[in-house]
Amino acid sequence: MSATDPSALALSPREEEVLAHLAQGCTYRIIARRMGLSPHTVDTYVRRLRGKTGLVNRIQLAHLAFQLGYGPGY
What is the pTM of this model? Predict the structure, then answer.
């Protein structure tokens, strides 16, 4: 995980929403359906999240989501 303070991340509202869905265990296809996007666009958001956070996989991103309070019930 990146040394960046999670609370200092400059995430867009859509990136936050994707994080919340990842924390719920959703696939890209389910996230896309819920957000009215294509799975490709969801993948783009996840790539941006990885770039901003330095994290390398969905598990790490989901863990970050819980740290930031984006878990189930967000």
Answer: 0.83
b/e code 25-63 from CB counts within 10 Å (16+ = b): ebebeebbeebebeeebbeebbeebbeebebeebebbbb
Residue 53 CA, chain-centre distance (Å), reads 10
Output the CA torsion sign for 5, 13, 57, 61: positive
pLDDT along the chain (74 residues), means of 10: 60 94 94 97 97 93 90 66
Query: How far are the Cα atoms of 2, 3, 39, 47 from residue 17, in angstroms, in the given order?
Result: 20, 23, 14, 14
d(CA 50, CA 31): 17
